[in-house]
Structures are given as structure tokens and as C-alpha cells.
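FW: tagging you since you asked about this chain on Friday. Here's the raw sequence from the shared folder, copied in full. Didn't touch anything.
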Amino acid sequence: MEILVVAATTMEIKLIVDELEKVEEESHFVKTYRFGDLNIDILVSGIGSSFATFHLTNALREKKYDAVINIGLAGSLTRELKIGEVVNVVSEEFADLGIEKQHEFLTLFESGYIGLNDFPFENGLLKATNSNGWIKLKKVKGVTTNKSFGRDTSIAEMREKFNAHVESMEGAAVFYVCTWMGVKCYQVRSISNYVEPRDSAKWNIPLALVHLKDALFQMLSHIAEPVV
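HL: got it, structure written out here
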């Protein structure tokens, strides 16, 4: 099975690759590692939707993959999730793609530029492939933005506008590309902070990264097959 793991930054995969055997460097962005009997490619795409879309599309054109797993840190929009908790993001929305009017923000769906069920959207959402229970993590909804929200007013507006649990900067882009290209896609995020006025003293990135590594290794153990 050919698996591509996509992360935005080297920080988010460092603990993971430190425990893997490097096999080869397919490009500046994609490197191959061995996990047991399974070879996996890891793509470090860069931060944000544009970089993720470009480099993931290139990777999927260069090689046929059975599945893409998007991993990384995320901010939680709800106190129901704990710092360090790892979640399975099963649906996504672009939270900053649309039209800003004097007193409101309209998504492309609300402004009529895209239909709610225009491919690859389903009722305005981009969805992960159904894991059929093999990803044993809490399922959540995500929003993707090209900025990390840190103002009370913008955070409140996003919470009111979108019924989401977590915020990232690449998730929706990964789902969009994979759905168009017919590749199974999954997203796993570890909560490093709550989405609130920025105070890094309240974050716990080291804990989130350890739990992210453990969750990914559990997933890879489940799907590992001997390399022929």
C-alpha cells in the first residue's frame, strides 16, 4: 500500500521521522521512510492552503497513492477538547474564502458563486474518506483559514459562522485536492492550543506532538502491509 503523509512543517513530523528509517529522498519536499514492512512517503507542504494545494497536487501527479493522511497541530474552538488530544477531522470548510460586506462575511455558497453540492462539496462541506471505524479517534469538524485567528471579534465571528471544533491552515485544501484526484484522504490533528487571543504560554506544543506521533504510528500499524 502506498501512503502519503502530509504535514505543513518539519516541526510537526520531527518526532515521527526520528523513529523511522529513511529510505530515499524523492524530491526536496517528499521523502520516503520505512515503518516496519511499510514504506511511507512524507510531504512537508508548507503552511497554508496555497502551498498545500500546489505541492500535494504535484506529489499526486508524480506517484499513485492509495491514501493521503494529513497530520499536524490544530487550535480548538471548543473547551470540550483537551490540549494534547488527537482528533479525526472528518469534514472541512474554508473559513476565509468569500466576500466581506459592511457588516457580514458571505461564503462563496452564500454569495451564489458555488452551489452547495457542486463537486467536490457535499452540502458545502469537504469530507474525508469514511474510515469505517479503523481510525479510533473522536470525529470533529474543521475549518481552514490562511491566518491564525487571534482577535476576540474575529474569533467570535468565526464561531458564530461555522459549526466547527478545530482550526487549521491546510485541512480543507488537502480534502479538496484528494477528492478531485480520486485518492482516499484522512486528517488527524493534535490540539496544541485553544483559539483565543494569542498567548503562547497557554499552548503545549511538545505534548501535542508526542500524542500526534503516537496516533499516527497506531494508524500505520493498522494498515501496514508487507512491501513486495
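FW: The helical segments are 14-17, 49-62, 152-161, 171-181, 205-223.
HL: agreed, and The domain at 3-223 is CATH 3.40.50.1580 (Rossmann fold).
FW: great, closing this out.
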